[in-house]
UniProtKB/TrEMBL annotation:
<feature type="transmembrane region" description="Helical">
    <location>
        <begin position="117"/>
        <end position="137"/>
    </location>
</feature>
<dbReference type="InterPro" id="IPR005226">
    <property type="entry name" value="UPF0014_fam"/>
</dbReference>
<dbReference type="Pfam" id="PF03649">
    <property type="entry name" value="UPF0014"/>
</dbReference>
<feature type="transmembrane region" description="Helical">
    <location>
        <begin position="88"/>
        <end position="111"/>
    </location>
</feature>
<keyword id="KW-0472">Membrane</keyword>
<protein>
    <submittedName>
        <fullName>ABC transporter permease</fullName>
    </submittedName>
</protein>
<comment type="similarity">
    <text>Belongs to the UPF0014 family.</text>
</comment>
<keyword id="KW-1133">Transmembrane helix</keyword>
<feature type="transmembrane region" description="Helical">
    <location>
        <begin position="58"/>
        <end position="76"/>
    </location>
</feature>
<keyword id="KW-0812">Transmembrane</keyword>
<feature type="transmembrane region" description="Helical">
    <location>
        <begin position="214"/>
        <end position="236"/>
    </location>
</feature>
Length: 252
């Protein structure tokens, strides 16, 4: 695709702008900002990836993965400011997910140890983990607030913090993983996933595209459950003090 054709595709941005203006939706500014940011960020990343792919240097691959994790942590932490130490909890979770997934992929020779595979797959895995973290933290903080009386009652009756927080924790883990699981039930029927569609458009064998997409689906399922469970069990102990009392949320 040339830059001219890319410019012509901006008509798909113009249509929602016109609708927003006509219906007084007030989305014009956000849509324009989002479009400009997407263009700048993706073009910049494209040139950076071209350099990294050509260099085939593991140090550059490492820096790219660190950048991905750093950006994901910065974005996800906003939803968990009431949880003490949420930043390092997110870092530990994302690093563990990266090590787990890449360790299996590279250790079993499922994918080659090249920038062409490591960086895109890491981006998809960490990106999904970030979204799951946001979903989990949003639901978990809401559950804690809505069940505060129930939690304190369990504690007053001699229950441990783990027992007191069990229902909100499990409910939050389940709620955050449901979108991933449900979307996978209809994949290929309702939608063709982006990675698979991209490979087919680029001329890849459809069967090979399907196999790679299935690999990503399996990765994202692991990412969804491990991220929510790990972040949950890292977070809940900091909600209580040394006297096993529930701490009031710190709304920053």
């Amino acid at each position: 695709m040339s830059f001219l054709l890319l410019g012509l595709s901006l008509i798909f941005v113009l249509i929602p702008l016109v609708l927003s203006k006509t219906l007084n939706l007030g989305l014009e500014k956000d849509a324009v900002v989002a479009t400009i940011r997407a263009i700048i960020q993706l073009l910049a990343v494209g040139y950076i990836l071209q350099f990294v792919f050509d260099a085939e240097n593991f140090f550059y691959i490492f820096l790219m993965v660190v950048l991905i994790i750093g950006a994901a942590v910065q974005n996800a932490r906003k939803k968990g400011v009431s949880i003490k130490g949420i930043t390092w909890k997110l870092i530990v979770t994302f690093v563990f997910i990266e090590v787990l997934t890449q360790g299996i992929l590279l250790g079993l020779n499922i994918t080659p140890a090249t920038a062409q595979y490591i960086i895109p797959i890491s981006g998809m895995v960490i990106g999904n983990s970030m979204v799951l973290s946001i979903l989990f933290l949003n639901r978990f903080t809401s559950e804690i607030e809505s069940r505060e009386a129930e939690t304190e009652l369990i504690l007053s009756l001699g229950g441990t913090p783990k027992q007191a927080i069990h229902r909100p924790l499990i409910s939050s883990i389940q709620a955050s993983t449901i979108p991933t699981i449900e979307s996978q039930k209809t994949i290929g029927l309702v939608q063709l996933p982006g990675m698979m569609s991209g490979q087919i458009i680029a001329g890849a064998d459809p069967l090979q595209a399907v196999m790679f997409q299935l690999l990503i689906i399996f990765l994202l399922l692991t990412t969804a459950v491990v991220t929510s469970a790990m972040l949950g069990f890292l977070s809940y102990p900091t909600l209580f003090n040394e006297r096993m009392q529930l701490l009031k949320p710190d709304k920053q």
